[in-house]
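Listing S7. Sequence submitted for prediction.
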Amino acid sequence: MMDEQIQAKLKNVKSYRFIDDYYLYCDSYADAEKAFKFIQSLLTEYQLDINEEKTKISKAPFAFDSKWSIELGSFTFRKRANSQLTDIERFVSLSLIHSNENPKDSVLLFSIQVLKYLQLFDENWDTYESLILKIGITEPRTLPVVTEILASNIGRISKRKIKNIIEKLIDIHLPKGHNYEVAWALGCVLSLILNLKIKWQNGFLLLMIMCQC
């Protein structure tokens, strides 16, 4: 709905959306400011906030793609099991490096989508599983995709490994009021049918959150 409103209002502005980031190309600085004000008002209408740290107006010429998107977008995974395993490890390492260097960008959201559609050799699953969980812990916004990958591979997941990570996530994030991470953990428990051991203090808080849902 919001995308349609932007296209209807800003007909002469070239734009595209990547995950939750918008890129608009205007003919003048004044047009860019008008577009920004419109999107800002539109987000307010939907009770959403604009990330001011990530928002900027840049004058041409400038690079259309960032270094990380070019490097990760052109990354090639080889077609042999051993080589693919090495490539997966390299890809995730590069993703984490670029994420640290570009904390305002959606680097790991991009990376988890690439890994989601990778034609994986069965023998590489254990390492693959560990690395997507690492991405999920590092960038909470990737957690829905991580859960989707795990749920679609229910027959070969390590429930013990996932259970331990979820228990740690709940123990860390629940007392801090990080409900997004806790909600993901609960959803993952329901999707994967895991029996958790939660500290009794956190168990009480967890019960309160579940009652609010």
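Caption to Listing S7: primary sequence and predicted structure tokens for the chain studied. The longest helix spans residues 81-101. Residues 198-213 have pLDDT under 50 and may be disordered.
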